[in-house]
Amino acid sequence: MASFAQWVEGARPRTLPNAVAPVIAGTGAAAWLDAASWWKALLALVVAVGMVVGVNYANDYSDGIRGTDDVRSGPLRLVGSKLAAPRSVLTAAVISLTVGALAGLALAWFSAPWLIAVGAVCIAGAWLYTGGSKPYGYSGLGEVAVFVFFGLVAVLGTQYTQALRIDWVGVTLAVATGCLSSAVLVANNLRDIPTDAQTGKITLAVRLGDAKTRVLFQALLAVAFVLTLVLIAATPWCAVGLVALPLAVRAAKPVRAGSGGMDLIPVLKDTGLTMLVWAVAVTLALSLG
């Protein structure tokens, strides 16, 4: 039986910045339009956290029953390590996605009912990432999905539910957040290239190979900070977003150095921390601006 701590680890807390940062950035975009709403931001946060935890447990379940996690160099997986029954992990995934869905229904009810359809697509995307007969995460599309769902949809959805419109500032924030969020998955898949290739999980990292995946990771970080400079056109205060640059440099150091396996695990934490600090800094800047 898995302990509580192991269930928490199975939820992959290092990926939580992928949920929190887009909501912070989207709220900053709404603040730029003088339309920030704390309670709508809170509901959006519940949606995002429910989605991230749900997709992590769903991924644990689907990869576990396929045998993809039988050999791993990364953090604990509940099903693959035989610490929890597949049905229990599936139940945890369903509960997490349901909590996110209920918060999303409330948010759509008070904002725009058509967003319910967007939420349904997000839930389907969460399950089909590694679930179903042809999971798109096994075809090199995982990073694209993260960019769309935890970048464009999460940031612009947060801005829209509060301001009932989007603007170029929101789009810029969404693209930058999508790049940082995708970089987290790129680092994860870079670490898993040997085992994923062995088990037939053809991620984008497996397709590109080790060297090109390292270039992609650094390029995603660079694009995010170039877009931070673009945001200075809205208000010079956005330059404060560069405070996260040293964290990005620290995250990229093991990648540039050619580290692999367990040595790449800190990259996920540092990339997530980069995303959080950047989102908070830019949101404060837009609020002041």
Classified by CATH, the class is: Mainly Alpha
Roughly what is the average pLDDT, rounded to an integer? Answer: 92
Mind summarizing the main beta sheet? Answer: none
Structural class: mainly alpha
Query: Which percent bin holds the helix content?
Result: over 70%
Reported by name, the CATH topology is Farnesyl Diphosphate Synthase
How many runs of DSSP E, i.e. beta strands? 0
Low-confidence stretches: none
Order of helices and strands: HHHHHHHHHHHH
User: In DSSP terms, counting alpha (H) and pi (I) runs of 4 or more, how many helices?
Assistant: 12
Rg over alpha carbons: 18 Å
Beta-strand fraction estimate = under 5%
Give the overall form.
globular
Number of domains: 1
CATH architecture: Orthogonal Bundle
* Cα distance spanning the termini: 52 Å
Function: Conversion of 1,4-dihydroxy-2-naphthoate (DHNA) to demethylmenaquinone (DMK).
Transmembrane segments: 41-58, 88-107, 114-130, 136-156, 168-187, 216-249, 270-288
GO cellular component, one term: plasma membrane
Membrane topology: Multi-pass membrane protein
Structural features, described:
With 289 residues, the protein is mainly α. It has one domain (4-288): Orthogonal Bundle (Farnesyl Diphosphate Synthase), CATH 1.10.600. 71% of the residues lie in helices and 0% in strands. It contains 12 helices and no strands. Helix 11 (245-256) packs antiparallel against helix 12 (265-288). It is globular, with a radius of gyration of 18 Å. It starts with a helix and ends with a helix. The model has no long low-confidence stretch (mean pLDDT 92). GO terms for molecular function: 1,4-dihydroxy-2-naphthoate polyprenyltransferase activity. It is an enzyme of class 2 (transferase). Keywords: Cell membrane, Membrane, Menaquinone biosynthesis, Transferase, Transmembrane, Transmembrane helix.
